[in-house]
Each structure stands twice: as structure tokens, then as C-alpha cells.
Specification:
The chain is an alpha+beta fold. It is built from 20 helices and 21 strands. It folds into three domains: about 110 residues, DNA ligase i, domain 1 (Orthogonal Bundle); about 200 residues, DNA ligase/mRNA capping enzyme (D-amino Acid Aminotransferase, Chain A, domain 1, 2-Layer Sandwich), CATH 3.30.470.30; about 120 residues, OB fold (Dihydrolipoamide Acetyltransferase, E2P) (Beta Barrel). Strands 3, 4, 5, 6, 7, 8 and 9 form a seven-stranded mixed beta sheet that branches. Strand 5 and strand 6 form a beta hairpin. Helix 1 runs antiparallel to helix 2, helix 5 crosses helix 6 and helix 7 packs antiparallel against helix 8. The longest helix is centred in the middle third of the chain and has 18 residues. The chain is globular. The two termini are about 50 Å apart. The protein binds adenosine-5'-triphosphate (ATP).
Length: about 550
């Protein structure tokens, strides 16, 4: 199938903000594709040529792309740069410059979806000497055959900045419609595999039966099961009858996979951070069994007995350089709480079984490996849970988890089978869409951040401005991130791609015509930058309204 067809779909998607319309456009398109093209189209609709958990990225810097565009069009780099400044977007700039160029030296060949996809993928494999010129030649081959509209989307795909506003949920619904498959079956397959291109491909080739056969595979991360907020320890334990209560550690959630000789670490967002934690890989090699497994736990860092901030741990695991120094300054340890795979998938077994198995197979000799502190409670001995809660807070952790021991692990589900009871009031996870630079001494920093949550069509709706809560260092870091994701600026105001997730505490939710949600937050305070969360994890208007 020609890339031109895909571009038509991109344009149609850009023309609507309605989720149902987007779903229809995608499902009509998906149903026309063969299974390989389908898997490619799904990834591209989501803005990349790699599945989300892949460590690979296209890694094409502005400079390289600008230089390629200027070569293809025979114009100066400055002209390209001016246009980008003007339109605020490299894709739009390309389209405009291509249109201005009347000579027909292009169209030397017709671009297919497969060719565009494979060419962009190839870029990530190029390294070493001469890599820049090899990359340029691939980009030139693509861009010199492109029409203005194709150039617009190719350049966006090269930088993984497609911004079609397509959420995973829309693609899931589209696959379900295109191949008339029950949504729940699609969801299950997605939560297990975390790869919609695979789900699409299996739907097309084998239908519902094929999807039901999909299972956990070590090496491929699985969406974590999430917790609901508990109203109280007693009411939650009462509801469950019996419960496993564990300390809710203040670190980052980690999935550890062993697949043959390979060990991988994935974060809550299923980012592969294996390379950043070499010392932990060694620990796991020695303390864990030789079989294939998937284990979940919280990874924390302590210095002189005190927990190091969540932000520091995240920075450490996302680090690409100076890893040796970080091993010393941010010493990590693991508190394990679940076992999803051991020789075979066991996530459908009850938690009590999985926990017992975990206890059997883990060697606790190394002090970096621990099991989560836990108690088995009923209403009769509920004081054990309360004691555990107090111990958690005394050790600077967040509270306790209350889990139903009879329940299976359901990937991606936020349900009542696993609950959290925290000392601090609930917060909101929001995405930053803009900001304003400060005045006077603070004019180097963005002092106020415009925050948004999402509606039922996955459109972003603003909810508040927030500026307090961060240290100078954090403000600086955030300002740098904002510059990285800048779409455009107007005076002291800046608008950014929705990439930065913040956790916000507040005193009250109030009605307010000032923001698109119709609500606002009183005294919002930025608790932290949630680098472990993505746009899929932000809060919804629905939840906000229910909390109001
Ligand atoms: P929060 O913002 O409260 O961390 P979240 O949205 O990241 O919530 P939830 O599922 O709501 O995730 O809360 C559970 C989180 O608590 C897990 O993601 C995990 O990182 C952390 N955690 C700490 N200790 C445990 C434990 N013993 N069992 C399960 N999760 C734990």
C-alpha cells in the first residue's frame, strides 16, 4: 500500500477531535491492510516505528533533518530554520517549503508504507564512523521522493513528533471494529503484550482465538496491575475478608524479566532501563533462579538508612552516562512483591500462591534483595495492618498496600483487588501544556505551568496553573524540559508538547470558567515530576468531577 493512503488517513485524523470519528477512520483503514502493513500502520498512527517498550529510537536531531531538507529542496539551511520558527513545527515547515518548490525533480519513486517504515527503522541501527552521512542518505532517499504532504509526515515520524492525538484506547477500539473482535479480548491481549502492532497483526491473522492464545513472554513487559485508593484499612480488609498488607515503598516500580541468559529491568511505563543498573543485574543473576521469570517489585535507594527521593532514583535509572558514579551515589535495593511468570505464566494463580512461590525461589542473602514487608490480616487481627502502616510512615515510606490474596494478576487493571492506603491526601496526575517565564530575577525560569487532564475523547483540557513546590534545581530541570518540548512561544508564554507529567497536590477542587475543564484547583502544589508516567496515565475529567 502506498504511503499516500496513510497520509490521507493522517490528514483525516487531524481534522477531528472526536474519538468516535478517529476510531472509524482508523478501523476503515485497518480493515484494508494486509497484516504486515497493518502492524506498521498501527505503530505509525501512534507516532513511532517502534513499540513503546523498545529501547530503540530514531534519534534524528533537528540539525540533521534541516540539512537533509535543505539539500533536497536546494535551499539554504537558514531558510528552513526560518520556516520552522514561523510555523512552530518541522512538519508544517517542510510541507510549506515543498509546496513553494515548483520544479518537479521529486517523485522519482512511489513511496510505500513498508518502505517508509523500514527506512525510518533502519536509522536506529546505524552507528559508528560515517553514521551521519549514512543516515542523511536514507533520509534523502525518503524526502526526495515525497510529495509536500508526505514530507510533512515523514519529517514528523523521523522525530517521533506526530501529534495526531491518537491514544492507545482509540487504536484498540479501531482494531476491535475492523475485525469484529470483542473489546475485552483486545484489551487483555494488549495488557499482556503491551504491543498494539502485535495485537493488530494477530487479530487480522487469527482472530479472537489467536488473541486468546497470547500470553506472557519474559522479555516483553506487561502493563502493571494498578491500585485503587482505599477509604480505610478496616473497610478494605472487611470487604476482602482476608488481606495481604504490605508496606508501600517510596521508590519506583520495577519489572524484572529473565529470558534465557538475558535479564531486563522495566519501569512502570515499561521503559527498558537495564543498561542503567548493571550492579542490580549482577545481583539478580546470583540471587534469582536460573529459570525464566517475571518478578515485580519496588526499587528504592537509601543513603545512611534514609530513602533518597523518587526523583533521584528515576534520574539514575534513565541515565545513559556516568553510570559508575551513580552506582555509588544512588545505591539501589529491591523489595519484591509479585511473581507473574516462573517457567510458565502464573499470573492467573491467586496472589497467595504467587507470593509463596516467590518466597521459595528468591535467595535473600544479598542485602540488596528483599521481599516486601507483609502481614496476613483479617478483621480479627487488623491491628497488624495498622502497625505496618505506622512502621511504613516511620520509615519515610508512603503507607500500605492492601491486596486480595484470592485474586489473579490482571495486567493494566485499576481495581478493588489491590488498594493503597496513604498518609497523604490524593493527588492529581496532569500534563504540562504551557508555561510562563518569571519576572526579574526569575526570568530564566518558567515560574508558572499550565496544566491539563484528558476528557473522554482523550482531548486535553486545561485545569490550573501551578508554580510552587519545586526547588530551584527542579525548576531549572523543568524549564529545560519545557524548552525541549517547545511548540511555540508568544512573549513570555510558551506552549509545549504534552510530554511532562506532574503530580499535583491541592486543597480543593472548585468550579471555574477560566479553564477548559470548567474546574480549577485551589492552592496547587507541584509534588514531583512523574517521569515514570506517560500521557496515558494522566487523570481524567471524569475522575475530577467524581472527586468534586
Ligand atoms: P502512586 O501515585 O500512588 O504511586 P501509581 O498510579 O503510580 O500510584 P498505583 O497502582 O496507584 O500506582 O499505586 C501502587 C504503586 O505503589 C505501585 O505502582 C508501586 O510502584 C508502588 N508500591 C510500593 N510498594 C508496593 C507494594 N508492596 N506492592 C505494590 N505496589 C507497591
Amino acid at each position: 500500500m502506498n504511503f499516500k493512503e496513510m497520509v490521507k488517513v493522517f490528514e483525516e485524523l487531524n481534522g477531528t477531535t472526536k474519538r468516535l470519528e478517529k476510531t472509524k477512520i482508523l478501523s476503515d483503514f485497518f480493515s484494508k491492510l494486509d497484516s504486515k502493513t497493518l502492524s506498521q500502520a498501527i505503530l505509525m498512527a501512534l507516532g513511532s516505528v517502534f513499540p513503546p517498550y523498545s529501547e530503540e529510537e530514531t534519534g534524528i536531531a533537528d540539525k540533521l533533518l534541516i540539512s537533509a531538507v535543505s539539500k533536497v529542496l536546494g535551499i539554504s539551511k537558514n531558510l528552513v530554520q526560518d520556516e520552522i520558527r514561523e510555523t512552530g513545527d518541522i512538519g508544517l515547515a517542510c510541507e510549506k517549503l515543498y509546496k513553494n518548490k515548483t520544479q518537479q525533480t521529486f517523485f522519482s519513486k512511489v513511496l510505500t508504507i513498508n518502505f517508509v517504515f523500514e527506512s525510518i527503522r533502519k536509522l536506529s541501527t546505524i552507528s559508528g564512523s560515517n553514521s551521519q552521512s549514512k543516515k542523511i542518505s536514507i533520509i534523502l532517499e525518503l524526502l526526495s521522493s515525497a510529495s509536500p504532504a508526505e514530507a510533512k509526515y515523514i519529517s514528523k515520524l523521523l522525530q517521533e513528533h506526530l501529534r495526531l492525538g491518537i491514544a492507545d484506547g482509540t487504536v484498540r477500539d479501531a482494531i476491535s471494529q475492523a475485525f469484529t473482535i470483542n473489546k475485552d479480548v483486545i484489551d487483555r491481549a494488549y495488557m499482556l503484550s503491551n504491543d498494539l502492532s502485535l495485537v493488530g497483526q494477530v487479530s487480522k491473522e487469527k482472530g479472537e482465538a489467536g488473541l486468546l492464545e497470547l500470553n506472557l513472554v519474559p522479555g516483553r513487559p506487561v502493563k502493571p496491575m494498578l491500585a485503587k485508593l482505599a477509604e480505610g484499612i478496616e473497610s478494605s480488609v472487611g470487604e476482602m475478608g482476608e488481606a495481604i498488607c504490605e508496606i508501600k515503598y517510596d521508590g519506583i516500580r520495577i519489572q524484572i524479566h529473565k529470558h534465557g541468559d538475558e535479564i531486563s529491568f522495566f519501569t512502570r511505563r515499561l521503559e527498558n532501563v537495564t543498561n542503567a543498573v548493571p550492579e542490580m543485574i549482577e545481583v539478580v543473576k546470583n540471587g534469582f533462579p536460573d529459570e525464566d521469570f517475571i518478578i515485580e517489585g519496588e526499587m528504592i535507594a537509601t543513603r545512611e538508612g534514609k530513602p533518597i527521593s523518587f526523583q533521584n532514583i528515576l534520574q539514575r535509572v534513565r541515565r545513559k552516562y556516568d553510570i559508575d558514579k551513580a552506582i555509588e551515589s544512588v545505591p539501589l535495593s529491591l523489595y519484591l512483591f509479585d511473581l507473574l511468570y516462573y517457567k510458565i505464566p502464573i499470573l492467573y494463580e491467586p496472589l497467595s500462591f504467587r507470593r509463596k512461590k516467590l518466597e521459595e525461589i528468591i535467595n535473600l542473602e544479598n542485602e540488596k534483595i528483599n521481599l516486601s514487608d507483609k502481614v496476613d490480616v483479617t478483621l480479627e487481627n487488623i491491628y497488624l495492618a495498622k502497625d505496618l502502616f505506622n512502621k511504613s510512615i516511620a520509615n519515610n515510606h508512603e503507607g500500605i498496600m492492601i491486596k486480595d490474596p484470592k485474586e489473579p494478576y490482571i495486567p493494566g487493571l485499576r481495581g478493588k483487588k489491590m488498594q493503597k492506603f496513604k498518609a497523604e491526601p490524593e493527588t492529581l496526575d496532569v500534563v504540562v501544556v504551557g508555561g510562563t517565564y518569571g519576572l526579574g530575577k526569575r526570568s530564566n525560569f518558567i515560574g508558572s505551568y499550565l496544566l491539563a487532564i484528558k476528557d473522554e475523547d482523550d482531548n486535553l483540557k486545561t485545569i490550573a496553573h501551578a508554580g510552587t513546590g519545586l526547588s530551584e534545581d527542579q525548576l531549572e530541570q523543568l524549564t529545560q524540559l519545557m524548552e525541549k518540548y517547545k511548540i511555540k512561544d508568544v512573549g513570555t508564554k510558551i506552549y509545549v508538547e504534552p510530554k511532562i507529567i506532574l503530580e499535583i497536590a491541592y486543597s480543593e477542587i472548585v468550579k471555574s470558567p477560566e479553564y477548559e475543564t470548567g474546574y480549577s484547583l485551589r492552592f496547587p502544589v507541584i509534588k514531583r515530576i512523574r517521569e515514570d508516567k506517560g500521557i496515558a496515565d494522566i487523570d481524567t475529567v471524569e475522575r475530577l468531577v467524581s472527586m468534586f
